[in-house]
Amino acid sequence: MRTTRVRLAQAQINVTVGDIKGNIERILEYVGYAQRAGADMVVFPELAVCGYPPEDLLFREDFLRDSSRAVKEIGARSVGIIVVVGFPERDRKGNIYNAAAVLAKGKTLDVYRKKHLPNYGVFDEKRYFVPGEGTTLYHYGKALIGINICEDIWAPDGPFVEQSNKGGGLIINISASPYHAGKTLERESLIRKKAAKEGVYVSYTNLVGGQDELVFDGGSFVAGPGSRILSYAGAFRERLLVTEIEVPNVPSEKRTNKDKARYVELPFLPRDARSKERPGKVKRLLGPAEIYEALTLGIRDYTRKNGFSQAVLGLSGGIDSSLTAAIAADALGAENVYGVWMPSRYSSEVTEENAVRTAAGLGINFMTLSIEALYGLYLSVLDKYFLGLKMDTTEENLQARIRGTLLMAISNKFGRILLSTSNKSETAVGYCTLYGDMAGGFAPLKDVPKTMVYSLAEYRDTRSGKIFPRGVFKVAPTAELKHGQKDEDTLPAYHILDKMIKEYVECRKTRPGKGEFSETVRKVIAMIDRNEYKRRQGPPGIKITPLAFGRDRRLPITNRYRSL
């Protein structure tokens, strides 16, 4: 079978929502890389011009106007190469489309409009966009190429199938698909099967980088008709992936518009000499390594894209704050991370030693601020109002709030972002203090269950030598807000609690099962339900599970519904 050779470059880049000028510079930089690599075509992720998700910025006329101007600027400089780049398009009627501009010869040759708009989980595209219509294919030499956007490739009998059935031998998909654990392999498996079923090559180009709660993992690749991955860009980093693809030629009688499809001619750019560059092998990340890299990228991008260069956190000597400190140090550099040990009358020598040794092991800055005097002052001020009442969680929460106030003071004075150290298990059941340990600008572990915290800490501890003292792993989880306090005095063991949270929150199971834990399940469900008000007031955090609190799970705070 005769073929047309396409030297395809996939630009897996990290852009910032709203930084249109900076995004243009990034895109043109990678256009240059692709030209020097001898590519015929370079493709960029979904909405790369404006960043994803732009949300209600799409309601601003100036935002849409600037995005369109950006496409023209990129097109004017796209000479000698075909460029496919995602952007928000507004037509003359005022409709807004999630679109891909096809640029060549210094101008826009065509615009493809996304047909299937996701409206589940973190996606809310039907709020903003109008779906595209029809089927478009692009002539390149004697081959046909299909271009579609993200959800278009997943829809049964959608654009991917339409373009394949009408002769498309190479289907290009540009995406902004957010990460959760294991999703990279899920995507690969599904696209490999689709490529094999339709007998086509598939280029999948995904965004990389952190955007608020979301992390985009990249993981771009090319799959062949034999269900084989031809090339892979790796995860959590920018890369230009260049792959030579022999696309089967389509007989001239099939390259017509009799089937009501729309055909667009692309300039054929034959090259006398092609680079011998081949994609290098990239190590795949699995399990804790994958999640750890997602968290690192999430902290780095949230911090730097929001104008911070340094971070501060309360370093209690427990597993959560120790892991948060490690990820922050890897993301920002140890010299830019400040750990603060804030002891009270209830703090133990073990946790103090853990905090000191963890800071030393990571090489981060460390300071001690005792809250004892402030705590005593608070108690004396409130004494006449609380006279005759027993001490309870009120006095416990005072300590957490004093710590939160001190940390916020340091954050304000030195311009360091405050990292909250609460995990998903605690925030699920409300085992955390508003304006206390929940205070902060960002919560890296917000979607990380407690049992996973241990796994990630073990991974980090073995990756490059021992970092954490063993006491961090051995000490029973405790907030140390009263003598002898342990988390399990109030909560089920974390390996049990995390399973319950997963089934109720992520799997949406609403009825407790029978057996010895049925009453405990009911209590846990009640705790999750009544603490929505706390979660709503907490800082954003990185999504790493299929269903996270916040964008994925939106429930009313005032809510009396209980499963019957």
Give an overview of the whole structure.
The chain has 2 domains: 3-265, Carbon-nitrogen hydrolase (Nitrilase/N-carbamoyl-D-aminoacid amidohydrolase, 4-Layer Sandwich), CATH 3.60.110; 287-537, HUPs (Rossmann fold, 3-Layer(aba) Sandwich). The protein is elongated. The protein has a 7-stranded mixed β-sheet with strand order 13-12-9-8-7-6-15, covered by helices on one side. The N and C termini lie far apart (64 Å). The mean pLDDT is 90. It has 15 helices and 19 strands. It has helices spanning 20-36, 61-76, 159-165, 183-198, 287-305, 319-332, 349-362, 372-382, 393-414, 424-429, 450-463, 471-474, 494-506, 518-530, 532-537; strands at residues 3-12, 41-43, 82-90, 96-104, 107-113, 136-140, 143-149, 170-175, 201-206, 208-211, 214-217, 221-223, 229-232, 239-248, 262-265, 311-314, 337-341, 365-368, 417-418. It is an alpha/beta fold and 564 residues long. Helix 5 (287-305) packs across helix 6 and helix 6 packs parallel to helix 7 (349-362).
